[in-house]
Write a structure and sequence with these properties.
single chain, about 170 residues, about 0% strand, VC2046_fam, QueD like 2
Length: about 170
């Protein structure tokens, strides 16, 4: 049995796996399976023909009209555009000064973003450390080295010296 080229998925084999099973050739079957790629992204079911999908609920304008008709609140952002680590401190101060009802009202009127980071390529170091070495190597080869990243040092220093960041947390009795 000869196979031309590199095997990545089972479609390239055609019916050879089925023939090996029906003729009880275990060694050929095991050889063919071992030659297939171990990466799930190479599996045939992930290489489907591309179809352009239409939005389920129409355009953005239709969604805004629907929000107005239903009386729904403002759209909740997915992430903060400038990273703001003081959201929790501001919420704690609001609960302490004005109560939990005011915080709920403020959240309903101006919903907070769901995440702090607005970086779709960010992967936590805990997740990377749990991956196998091949995946870690691929990830680190794609990311930029730290020496090439630009940083606004003045703004970072101003954020660190902001008085709200160093304000002690207060415990209140309910």
């Amino acid at each position: 049995m000869q196979i031309d080229g590199i095997l990545t998925n089972e479609i390239q084999l055609g019916n050879k796996l089925g023939v090996c099973i029906s003729e009880n050739r275990r060694s050929d079957f095991a050889l063919l399976l071992s030659m297939l790629s171990a990466d799930p992204l190479d599996f045939a079911q992930f290489h489907l023909p591309y179809e352009e999908k239409k939005p389920a609920y129409g355009t953005q304008a239709d969604n805004e009209d629907l929000r107005l008709k239903l009386g729904a609140g403002p759209l909740q952002a997915l992430a903060v555009k400038p990273i703001d680590f003081l959201i929790g401190a501001e919420n704690a101060a609001m609960v302490q000064e004005q109560g939990l009802a005011q915080l709920k009202l403020q959240t309903y009127l101006n919903p907070e973003p769901l995440a702090i980071r607005d970086d779709k390529d960010y992967i936590s170091s805990d997740i990377i450390s749990n991956c196998n070495l091949n995946v870690q190597k691929r990830y680190f080869s794609q990311t930029e080295p730290l020496s090439h990243l630009s940083m606004n040092a003045a703004q970072f220093y101003n954020d660190l010296t902001h008085p709200d960041l160093h304000r002690p947390l207060a415990v209140t009795q309910a």
